[in-house]
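Each field is set out underneath.
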Amino acid sequence: MAIQPLPFETQIFELEKKIEELKKVSELSDQSLSKEIESLEKKLEQVKANIYKSLTPQQKVMVARHPNRPYTLDFVKYIFEDFVELHGDRLFRDDPAIVCGIAKFDGEPVTIVGHQKGKNTKENIYRNFGMAHPEGYRKALRVFQLAEKFRRPIITFVDTPGAFPGIEAEERGQAEAIARNLREMAGLTVPMITIITGEGGSGGALAIAMGNRVLMLEHSIYAVISPEGCASILWKDASYSDKAAEALKLTAQDLLKLKVIDEIIKEPVGGAHRDHLETAKNVKYAIRKHLNELMAMSSDKLFEDRYMKYRNIGVFAEAK
């Protein structure tokens, strides 16, 4: 799939187009243009680095939502071995918006749960744009309980605008399904690592995200509401979304300062959508580091570690 340019990437795409044109000319003629191409490639890398190191919160929202970003099944392909997908919530149906399964990580068995968006219109309709119904969260809960029974570490990948808000989802108990997941995750005694890979939207994200360690890709976002939704409520106008994105403190850098997350995973220059393999390597390294630390803890310690992590989020000040 061709990479779609974002509004602030005009200069990047112009340079890439020039490089591609020079390469074609070089191939079709005896004229060597290697020096010119090399010079432009160096300039391109510098431009990408300059643009991406100074993104605004609203621009990070655009990057986090880029349709070419890697999704759960991409990370499964590059990071894990022997993946077997598990389907259904044993109550109503399967939900393709959440992928669950068992696999091996560095030869050791693990459990995987993650949101899954589509790579084209047909897939997005099938995956409901990564917005899960109640049965998606109940499927995740079933797999969490399976991991607890067989003492398997849990790795979750979060990338959703939020839980599906349709009438049928509410009729089948969307809020209850999310609340039950939060309660059950709080009591898990196996290691759990969560990675925010794109957009982490509200309770739909949190319903699979109560890890002992919560990590975020460099240009991902995590918030209680979308900037557009926030702007519609506060200013009655979604066009104020850039102002809302700034106020929400939804970037990985903001959330690390606030101690909501534990680590930022570096993305390739120009964003994860430009290099899935390099992104996956960085994610794998982070998982390995934290998993080794968590695997050394006892069940009681893992429970206490998760409990204290969420108790310590936020600062309370008594009124004078």
Observations:
- DSSP finds 14 helices and eight strands in the chain.
